[in-house]
Amino acid sequence: MTLHIEKTTTSKISKVDFSNLSFGQEFTDHMFECDYIDGTWQTPKILPYAPLTLDPSAKVFHYGQAVFEGMKAYKSDDDEIWMFRPDQNQKRINISAERLGMPAFPKELFFDGLNNLLKLDNEWIKKGEGNSLYIRPFIIATESCVSASISDSYKFMIICSPVQSYYAGEVRVIIEDKYSRSANGGVGYAKAAGNYAGSFYPTKLAREKGFQQVIWTDSCSHEYLEEAGVMNVFFRVNNTLLTAPTSERILDGITRKSIVQLCEHEGINIEVRPVKVSEIMEAARKGELLEMFGAGTAAVISPILGFSHHDESFELPKVADSYATYIKKRITDIQQHKAEDIFGWTYKVN
Ligand code: COI
Fold first, then answer.
1. What is the mean pLDDT of residues 258-280?
2. Domain-terminating residue out of 118, 138, 163
3. pLDDT tens readout for residues 174-226
4. Same domain, 103 and 176
5. Residue 140 CA to ligand 1 centre (angstroms)
6. Ligand 1 pocket by C-beta < 6 Å: which residues?
7. Cα 229 to averaged position of ligand 1 atoms, centre (Å)
């Protein structure tokens, strides 16, 4: 299917201060969209970035039938555009879509749209440490009808936002033992919009208590550590990294799986297994819990400085040989094409 491209006549780029960007607030000049009507994906289009017009009864507004992805593009010193494992995002959005009863978006259309959009908005991707373009593909239910049933029409879109290093400030977390992000048989493994909406209120409560994020535990027993905020989570006990296995409750994070692969390759001891709250508490009491960090596309790695559970609080030590710092550098060097990509993770936009 031929991609229809309509270029903007008025670029916004000169109005953007690229040295002072807040995450996800500025968007590039163009967007990709493709509608699903009568059982087929229609002509894909790249259009000037603009608000959408949707009927107020569109199902996405009422039932949250929506899935999304987060990915990044980088510009190398020789002006090439590189992406990090976009094949994984392309597969995952369709895994998420299936769980929400939505049609899969074809791989060829995804990559054709993505490549053309990034070439068109090339100037928005800045070189240099910490600069990248955050790319947000998503699918929403557009049928105009408030009956609570699967939509018969959808819109797939990609929008792009220039970002700098994601600095979340100092992060201290509380281990959640009341609310849950996901449950067995639910949508936790999908990047469903509602998973994030459902996390906002417990996070607000945590903030009111002086914490920036929550660590999610399993919904049945609250005995196992699962995710941190909107990220996967890792714990370093002595010289071993621990992270929970993916499951129907846990997102199969691309940064998460890249960290596991990198550690296995570099001989950093890593165990992918259920991690009990009690063992992390015990390690913290003995001074053996050396690091905790979240891992996701936006921040890559977000160190956690301290945590609280029931009436116990811990500050983590400042370790000289931080795994978080080392792994973040290894991964971002590969992402920015500064280090050899021995894993075949990077993808050149052309
Ligand atoms: C990620 O870092 O992977 C995310 O999904 C973050 C996004 C929700 C802002």
1. 98
2. 163
3. 999 999 999 999 999 999 999 999 999 999 999 999 999 999 999 999 999 99
4. no
5. 18
6. 70, 196, 230-231, 296-299
7. 9
